[in-house]
Sequence to fold (155 residues):
Amino acid sequence: MNPSFEQRIIELAIGLPKPHGSVANYVAAHQVGNLLFVSGQLCMSPGGTLVATGSLGANISVEDGIQAARAAAINVVAQAKASLGNLDKIKRVVRLGGFIAATPSFSEHARVMNGASDVIVEIFGEQGRHTRSTIGVSSLPLQAAVEVEALFELN
Fold:
């Protein structure tokens, strides 16, 4: 049996924000069979402002990018909880996709995306170990620095 992910969130003192609404014509989460797809979540703070705006390699440090990726991943978890009602319905995290707004010369995308991967593993333990893609892009919606999407397998 999986550990209680709900309890783990409390132990880690990670406050899940109220999920943000979609900024365009799509749904935030969609369940197909025993899979839950969570659309890309921006690096919004619990207060609804972006943690970082602009581009890595220009006006955003790697450390601030890591914090932005962490915030985006927490928003992914918040969307999963809103969709499922309880995180303990999750069996494992299958995949994360990360989009990093960056200059063409920036090369530390993987290090930035570790901010998302690390918090997912903190919450879900071994069941949080996932496959991942990290892609550098020229811009993201609302000038966000980071966007993260996820695929969960459900019990």
